[in-house]
C-alpha cells in the first residue's frame, strides 16, 4: 500500500492549461474568418512569437472554426523584413497588421479591436470603470525556489 503524501498536491497540469485557455477576456471573434501570421522563428520578432505562444491557443479554443495559418520563416541577420498578420473578416475585407516591435498584448488588443465587435467595447468600458486594464499584463512564471514553495 503506497504511503500518503505529506503535502497537498497542487493543481494538475491539465487544470492549469484549461484555466489559461478560459481566462478573461475570452477572445470570442464572431467577425473573423481567417488569420495569417508570418514571422521569424528564431532571433527576432519576439512579440509575434509570444503572441503565437500565449494568445493564439486561446483564440483557437474560443473560435474553433477560424482558419489560422502560421508561417515561421528563416531570417538571417542581413535580412530586414518585418512580421505581419493578415486578418480576413467575414464581410470579405482584409487588414494587415504590422507586428514589428509590438508586445503580444498589444497585438491581441489590435486584433480584438478589428474583429471582436460590440462586446469588446462594452468589456473595455466595464474594465475602465473598475480601474483595471482591458487586458491583464502577462504573468511571469515562477522560477527557482519560488516555483516549488507555496
From TrEMBL:
Entry keyword set: Mitochondrion, Ribonucleoprotein, Ribosomal protein
Entry annotated with the keyword Aminoacyl-tRNA synthetase: no
UniProt KW Transmembrane keyword: no
Gene3D superfamilies: Glutaredoxin
Residues annotated as domain Ribosomal protein/NADH dehydrogenase: 40-118
Disordered: region residues: 127-150
InterPro entries reported in the protein's UniProt record: Ribosomal_mL43/mS25/NADH_DH, Ribosomal_mS25/mL61, Thioredoxin-like_sf
Chief site of localization: mitochondrion
Signal peptide: none
GO cellular component: mitochondrion; ribonucleoprotein complex; ribosome
Molecular-function annotations in GO: structural constituent of ribosome
Highest taxon of the lineage: Eukaryota
PANTHER family the record matches: MITOCHONDRIAL RIBOSOMAL PROTEIN S25, SMALL RIBOSOMAL SUBUNIT PROTEIN MS25
Protein's name according to its UniProt entry: Ribosomal protein/NADH dehydrogenase domain-containing protein
Source organism of this protein record: Trametes cubensis
